[in-house]
Design goal:
This protein has 372 residues and is α/β, with parallel strands linked by helices. Helix content is 30%, strand content 28%.
């Protein structure tokens, strides 16, 4: 497997496919390399929740990045659907963050005040209003916080559409090829895999939890990304379903139009162990039943697990290597890879193709972790 291209993207998850699509759409010659088919790593175990003001509520730099990416989502999904010819399930029906006791309600009240100070529209609801909005919720609910701009997307559908759209713009996707090393060969970069070598002028490292496992010439301290296992359940719901994403202290629930209910996600430091477990499934079922008692009567469809790539400060790692010219990092998105995919793709493409370094890259630069 020996070939040359402008840019080699390592990783075919949501971030890698989004970057590849944006680069190819702008005219670059692109190859994507991964040891799995597109979207079959952490992405396949993602519920696709788009909720910056819940997920990153206590980390405002991350929330600001995520909110900006969410603003791009309508156009992003429309463009990818058109370019690929594929439908992508995408809903902006809001999120309802639920409190089950007075302490949790106090937390939501404080969050509502903080969001209001930042100009974010969020509606605080009492117990009666919450039950009116979502009749399936437990009678023990104390109240909730409704954020109308939030929503969800089918992560697998979106990733497959991105891969197809990238191909239609000339990109190639090389599967079953795990990358081992990136090194300089003359004016180009060599990407060594288990099946041979690729050669490119530049490289985007978007390998998720495996980004730190790839040897990069001259880099002694590899990018500090650790895998965090997240387990996700898929249930078959009977009758009228939930109206929107429900967020609780121990889990979140995502209702699909076909009656499917996604329940996620555990947060487990288990290294590179991608197995689903009885303990994880039990924990999620108990947490979901605490919010919506009818969950106990749903049909169990499947359980999945994925490894979320976490950095040391929970911000993604996006930016150019200071050690090996031509290498661009796009990794460490942790639980926000789906949400941050449009923004990441634009930041990377602007930097690599237009030499435009957005000021946001100061927040995400790899060098905050050393000479990378």
């Amino acid at each position: 497997m020996d070939s040359t291209t402008d840019i080699v993207v390592i990783g075919a998850g949501i971030v890698g496919c989004a970057v590849a699509y944006e680069l190819a759409r702008r005219g670059a010659s692109v190859q994507v390399v991964d040891d799995r088919p597109a979207g079959m790593g952490a992405t396949q175990a993602s519920a696709g929740v788009l909720a910056p003001y819940i997920e990153a509520r206590h980390h405002w730099p991350l929330a600001a990045l995520a909110a900006l990416s969410l603003e791009q989502y309508d156009t992003f999904v429309a463009d990818v659907s058109s370019a690929s010819g594929m439908d992508v399930t995408y809903r902006r029906t809001g999120t309802l963050d639920v409190a089950l006791d007075a302490d949790a309600m106090n937390g939501l009240e404080a969050a509502a005040l903080d969001l209001a100070r930042r100009g974010v529209v969020a509606e605080l609801l009492d117990a009666r209003a919450v039950r009116h909005e979502e009749p399936h919720l437990t009678g023990d609910v104390a109240g909730g916080l409704f954020i109308s701009t939030h929503g969800f997307v089918a992560a697998g559908e979106l990733t497959r559409a991105l891969a197809t759209a990238a191909r239609r713009h000339g990109a190639q996707i090389v599967e079953h090829s795990r990358v081992k090393r990136i090194s300089r060969v003359g004016d180009d970069l060599a990407i060594e895999t288990a099946r041979g070598s690729l050669t490119g002028n530049r490289v985007v490292l978007a390998a998720g939890s495996w980004s730190g496992q790839i040897d990069i010439e001259g880099v002694s301290a590899r990018v500090p990304i650790r895998p965090v296992r997240g387990q996700l359940l898929q249930l078959a719901w009977k009758g009228p379903t939930l109206r929107r994403v429900i967020w609780g202290a121990r889990c979140y629930l995502v209702p699909w139009d076909d009656g499917t209910l996604l329940v996620g996600a555990t947060v487990e430091d288990t290294g590179f162990d991608e197995r689903t477990t009885v303990a994880g499934v039990r924990c999620l079922i108990e947490a979901a039943s605490e919010l919506v008692p009818d969950v106990s009567a749903a049909n169990f469809t499947s359980a999945k697990a994925g490894l979320r790539p976490a950095s040391g400060d929970d911000l993604p790692v996006i930016g150019a290597s200071s050690v090996l010219p031509g290498v661009m990092y796009a990794t460490g998105h942790y639980r926000n890879g789906i949400l941050l995919a449009p923004l990441t793709a634009h930041l990377v493409a602007d930097a690599m193709l237009e030499n435009v370094m957005d000021p946001m890259l100061e927040l995400t630069r790899p060098q905050r972790f050393g000479e990378l």
